């Protein structure tokens, strides 16, 4: 007899969204969430920029484009239902140079292809909307907002336990063994759990757990640290909208942006620096095991070669606060070094394939008794409710729940 029908590994927003929706779709089944930290949402979910993305950037027809648009509306609806504060501020994608205007037009075309409402903003209108922001023009995306995703995750956890589910914290999964009729899970304290099925939403450890089940042979999770600064309280009203640069298509990440947070302050960031540990939130955090695992993976070495220039630039920006400031001054020139105060960094769990290519879309794979979320970087928090619904659909069909 299994201890649980379904065990969900991972106490971030994707894991809790999945567990909550499984409990709603299939009432009466025994569901448990295992989280290796003492709290829920301790890593990517609780350390991101808190942006409710609209879905401007993503390839039309991709899971990211589909789930982000659905997730933006679903996230705001969930917040209204549970009394969670959020604000639909809207996002301005600001072109700071004339040579960025053609890229801005391509973003506009992509946004329209993704079914989004987007407005052109002239240089003069930009000044009216945001007097502290400088640019040649911008795109305005009304659907973007801000929220505390950790709070959403904890509400999902309450919904799960109210429905009879179990949440186990400080439960680090050390081994998974898939049997013909169950899955055996060994935890850090030696406890053995048995489940009929497992759903792994393990973020930074997604590839490791998947390999225990015979998956993820051709990819690895590579950690990128996103460093933020918080502006002083005298700058709390420096912008009203989310202010983003026009992303450079030659670079894998969006670039440093200016974000009003739901708690009332403003952050700038993140950059994207290769981390030397999977939980390497500080520059000096180094794990020899994590480094060796990365170095052995052919795709990591290929990625380093292909992105050497941008990688060195990111490291230089990380080491020099003045260089970091210059990225912000491109669209907010009045900011000064004294405005930048420390703020917790985040880690992006990025799947990279054997050829060194960063996987851009969400990736979900399965075995006979397990489902694995192998790639769920931003906008996974915005998309968590549709991702959870999608996994619930898979579980219903593949695991024969009804």
How would you explain this protein's 3D organization?
The chain has helices at residues 13-25, 63-82, 101-113, 123-129, 149-162, 206-212, 288-296, 298-306, 308-319, 321-329, 384-398; strands at residues 4-9, 31-34, 51-52, 86-87, 91-95, 119-122, 137-141, 145-147, 166-168, 173-178, 183-187, 192-200, 219-231, 242-245, 257-260, 266-269, 273-274, 340-353, 363-366, 370-375. With 402 residues, it is of the alpha+beta class. The chain has two domains: 1-90 and 144-218 and 361-402, 3-Layer(bba) Sandwich (FAD/NAD(P)-binding domain), CATH 3.50.50.60; 220-353, D-Amino Acid Oxidase, Chain A, domain 2 (2-Layer Sandwich). Strands 1, 2, 9, 10, 11, 12, 19 and 20 form an eight-stranded mixed β-sheet that branches. A hairpin with a 4-residue loop joins strand 11 and strand 12. Helix 1 packs parallel to helix 5. The mean pLDDT is 95.
Question: TL;DR?
Answer:
Helix 1 (13-25) crosses helix 11 (384-398).
Tell me the layout of helices and strands:
Layout: E1 4-9, H1 13-25, E2 31-34, E3 51-52, H2 63-82, E4 86-87, E5 91-95, H3 101-113, E6 119-122, H4 123-129, E7 137-141, E8 145-147, H5 149-162, E9 166-168, E10 173-178, E11 183-187, E12 192-200, H6 206-212, E13 219-231, E14 242-245, E15 257-260, E16 266-269, E17 273-274, H7 288-296, H8 298-306, H9 308-319, H10 321-329, E18 340-353, E19 363-366, E20 370-375, H11 384-398
Parallel strand pairs: 1-2, 1-12, 2-9, 5-14, 12-20
Antiparallel strand pairs: 3-8, 4-8, 5-7, 6-7, 10-11, 11-12, 13-16, 13-17, 13-18, 15-16, 19-20
């Amino acid at each position: 007899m299994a201890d649980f029908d379904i065990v969900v590994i991972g106490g971030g927003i994707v894991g809790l969204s999945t567990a909550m929706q499984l409990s709603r779709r299939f009432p009466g089944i025994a569901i448990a969430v295992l989280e290796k930290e003492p709290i829920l949402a301790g890593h990517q979910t609780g350390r991101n920029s808190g942006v409710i993305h609209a879905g401007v950037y993503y390839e039309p027809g991709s899971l990211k484009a589909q789930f982000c648009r659905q997730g933006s509306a679903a996230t705001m609806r969930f917040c209204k239902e549970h009394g969670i504060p959020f604000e639909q501020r809207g996002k301005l994608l600001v072109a700071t140079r004339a040579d960025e205007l053609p890229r801005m037009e391509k973003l506009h075309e992509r946004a329209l292809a993704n079914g989004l409402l987007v407005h052109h903003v002239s240089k003069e209108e930009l000044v009216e909307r945001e007097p502290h922001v400088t640019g040649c023009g911008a795109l305005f995306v009304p659907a973007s907002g801000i929220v505390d995703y950790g709070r959403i995750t904890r509400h999902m956890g309450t919904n799960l336990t109210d429905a009879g589910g179990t949440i186990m914290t400080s439960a680090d999964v050390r081994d998974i063994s898939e049997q013909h009729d169950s899955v055996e899970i060994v935890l850090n304290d030696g406890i053995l759990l048995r489940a009929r099925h497992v759903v792994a939403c393990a973020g930074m450890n997604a590839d490791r757990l998947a390999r225990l089940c015979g998956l993820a042979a051709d990819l690895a999770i590579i950690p990128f640290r996103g460093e933020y600064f918080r502006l002083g309280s005298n700058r709390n009203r420096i912008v009203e909208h989310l202010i983003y640069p026009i992303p450079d298509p030659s670079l894998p990440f969006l670039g440093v942006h200016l974000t009003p947070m739901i708690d009332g302050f403003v952050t700038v960031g993140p950059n994207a620096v290769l981390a030397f540990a999977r939980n390497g939130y500080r520059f000096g955090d180094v794990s020899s095991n994590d480094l060796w695992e990365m170095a052995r993976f052919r795709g990591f070495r290929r990625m380093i070669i292909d992105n050497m220039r941008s990688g060195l630039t990111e490291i230089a920006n990380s080491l020099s606060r003045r260089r970091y400031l210059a990225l912000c001054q491109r669209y907010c020139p009045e900011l000064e070094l004294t405005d930048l105060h420390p703020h917790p960094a985040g880690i992006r769990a990025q799947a990279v394939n054997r050829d060194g290519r960063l996987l851009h879309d969400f990736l979900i794979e399965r075995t006979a008794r397990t489902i694995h979320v192998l790639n769920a970087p931003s906008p996974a928090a915005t998309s968590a409710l549709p991702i959870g619904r999608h996994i619930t659909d898979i579980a219903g069909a593949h695991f024969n729940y009804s």
